[in-house]
Amino acid sequence: MERDPGLYGPSNFRDLGGYATADGRRVRWRRVFRSDALRLTEADVAVLRQLGLRTAVDFRTPMEYGHREGGGSETHVARWAEVGFRRIHLPMIDETRVARQASDERPPAARGYLKMLERGGPALVELFGLLASEEHHPLVFHCSAGKDRTGIAAALLLGVLGVDDATIVADYALSQANMERALAKIQARPDADRILANRPVAAWQAPTEAVVGFVEGVREVHGSWESAAASIGIDGATVATLRRLLLTD
Asked: Which of 6, 35, 166, 220 is the most buried (most CB within 10 A)?
């Protein structure tokens, strides 16, 4: 099955299914997706309707989408309504720009990811609660670029499901090519200079060392993905339900 269902508007939309777990099972396809902002074309609407998308969890802050009603332009909101999914706003601050702990030798992005895991706990707890209820499937979670906040949420989910660290890193790494695709789309626009002037180069990068540092930090601080989840309030019963719903028998 294809990991990328072929959307044009979002550049970093993909299925988290198919990954193997330590106990020999696999993450179910077409249950959970990760993405950047859902700026949909009409063709994308048809794809998401075919996927049966029920829930979209948005990690962006109101400042990121300009306080617009519904979190998007009138066109985007209308297309979301065409798909028919429920949009749930769980804002999480992107900590990658402010992570400056001199005593921590990890890459700055990795420091930010560890801080987001801590400070973004309430949003992640709610996300996992939604994922633990089958009525919300299929579900997509996303932020602006789909690599930082979305990346740590995907890593934590795959980790508690039993996917190995190397595969978690490999899934994150898929975002780099998608960031290049997103940048190419921007550069083709007539207002590209204005857009790019307000976004740092790091916004278009998904360096592997960032997620490697994050994974190593989780292991060092918490010992396991389950302990990391428990540290922010995701209990064992929720993890057990996630495994039952999202893994093959």
From this structure: 35
